[in-house]
UniProtKB/TrEMBL annotation:
Biased composition (Polar residues): 1-13
Region described as Disordered: 1-55
Lineage of the species this protein comes from: Bacteria, Bacillati, Actinomycetota, Actinomycetes, Micrococcales
Database matches in PANTHER family: CELL WALL-BINDING PROTEIN YWSB, FAMILY PROTEIN, PUTATIVE-RELATED
Protein name, UniProt field: SH3 domain-containing protein
Domain of life of the native organism: Bacteria
InterPro entries: Cell_Wall_Dynamics_Protein
Length: 319
């Protein structure tokens, strides 16, 4: 969320008590104070662009807001005092976390809204607002980039340090494998996905054609890192299909066009193919941690051409 969006959101409710939004006479929504993490070092002041400096804090420092913001500045609590910093020096983060105690629905409005998504059991979600409605029977949360309402009876409080995302009990192995299969189905339909319990074990087999992926540390089948790894293994399946009777020629060619000269040309080519299938080889997970999937390095135009050919079921020129 940008500083300006935050500002306008607060401006819209400035006529009433900070932190409280009244929808109507009988249905009130209350929200907690916003929570932020600094995106760079800050020196909060008593005024917006003037006033005494109250000290400083480095990047990654967590602060609570007061609910006020204006003119591109946000008011925070800093060592017990109210202070202003530029809104673009802050990133809003979850004010509270909750874990589902059963499968439940994310709705567009409290109680009567339409269903936006179904949350599995044992799934931890954050809430930027911690807004409650209908006598605390509903809580506003963010789930996979969407904001909606979940029944409080299906939630228990979770630590602010808890990682957002699926827990161990969110998916059975079969349900997890099915979700992963759906994520690669466009390119690898009907290729079985098997679940491994060995950390870091990911591979594709040619006879029979199948993919094995570790669930260890990957409870969420829709997380970007496991999606990227699944697409990398799917790329190997597509390589097998184009070269059903042996890999030597493709291996030699892939190594000859591999700028890294690390003997892993086939792997880099699978990475390039995975990107074309929508994999994000680096990124950020829902818990805020960064990840790298695959073997790193950018794809050259020659590698991209080879990847395109293999995705089309053809041998790359020269291979
Ligand atoms: Zn590989």
């Amino acid at each position: 969320m940008s500083g300006d969006a935050q500002g306008s959101e607060q401006d819209a409710v400035q006529s009433i008590e900070p932190g409280e939004v009244r929808l109507s006479g009988k249905n009130s929504v209350t929200a907690s104070k916003p929570r932020f993490v600094t995106t760079g070092s800050i020196t909060p002041r008593t005024g917006k662009s003037s006033g005494a400096k109250l000290g400083s804090a480095s990047k990654g420092y967590t602060v609570w807001g007061t609910g006020r913001s204006s003119s591109g500045h946000t008011q925070i609590k800093f060592f017990g005092k109210s202070a202003w910093v530029k809104s673009n020096q802050l990133k809003r983060v979850a004010a509270a976390n909750y874990t589902t105690t059963r499968g439940t629905k994310l709705r567009s409005q409290a109680a009567a809204g339409k269903t936006l998504a179904t949350l599995p059991s044992d799934y931890t979600v954050g809430t930027l607002t911690n807004a409650k409605a209908n006598k605390n029977k509903w809580v506003q949360v963010q789930y996979q980039g969407r904001t909606g309402w979940v029944a409080s009876k299906d939630l228990k409080g979770a630590s602010l340090r808890a990682a957002a995302g699926a827990g161990k009990k969110s998916y059975s192995d079969a349900a997890w494998a099915k979700k992963v299969q759906q994520n690669i189905a466009k390119y690898c339909p009907s290729i079985p996905v098997r679940v491994s319990k060995v950390k870091g074990e990911y591979y594709a087999e040619s006879i029979p054609r199948r993919i094995t992926l570790s669930r260890v540390g990957n409870n969420d089948p829709d997380a970007a890192n496991i999606k990227a790894v699944a697409l990398h293994e799917c790329a190997h399946i597509l390589q097998f299909k184009v070269y059903p009777s042996g890999f030597a020629k493709l291996t030699a060619y892939a190594n000859s066009i591999n700028p890294r000269r690390d003997g892993r040309g086939i792997e880099h080519l699978a990475d390039c193919m995975s990107e074309k299938m929508g994999a994000k080889r680096t990124g950020t997970l829902s818990n805020g941690n960064g990840y790298i999937a695959g073997y790193q390095g950018k794809c050259t135009s020659t590698q991209n051409q080879a990847a395109t050919a293999l995705l089309a079921g053809k041998r790359p020129a020269g291979a």
